[in-house]
Amino acid sequence: MTLWTFLDSCLDRLPGWPSERQWVTIGAFALAALLLGMAAHNPALWEVEVFKVIIQAVTLTGLLNMIFAFHFAANKGDEDKTRNTAAAFAAITATANAGGGDAPNLVPEPGAAAQEEGRA
Fold first, then answer.
1. How far apart are CA 80 and CA 89, in angstroms?
2. Which of 2, 37, 45, 86 is the most exposed place for a label (fewest CB within 10 A)?
3. Which pLDDT value is given to residue 22?
4. Range of the domain at 53
5. pLDDT computed for residue 103 by the predictor
């Protein structure tokens, strides 16, 4: 067994990449931690009003509530529906692109229905 096959087998045992919702949570905590870390590293930032407004908006108020509501209130099934819809559109596009010239025209010409009614 080489080092690369060993590492590959170790990676197969990991749980995988976080989902979209988990990335949102990680990003929100990282943003709050970054701002608080900046404030701890450079205390002079507490004198800047814009920084105080930004850090309060991110850490204390509901500025990010719309993002959190979308990601946490939605069903897990919504992601599957979106994925299924994307697969359906990809299949329709592939079928349309692969169609030959001998396919029947299913879209009637304007006035064709009136001509057919006149013959009956």
1. 14
2. 2
3. 76
4. 18-93
5. 54
Per-residue pLDDT tens over the stretch 11-63: 777 777 777 777 877 888 888 889 889 999 999 999 999 998 888 888 776 55
Residue 78 lies in a domain: yes
Domain count, the chain: 1
Contact 20, 83 (CB under 8 A): no
Question: Is position 106 within any domain?
Answer: no
DSSP sequence for 13-79 = TS--S--HHHHHHHHHHHHHHHHHHHHHH-GGGGG-HHHHHHHHHHHTSSTTHHHHHHHHHS-HHHH
Distance from C-alpha of 31 to C-alpha of 24, rounded to nearest angstrom: 10
Backbone angles phi, psi at 74, to 5 degrees: -70, 150
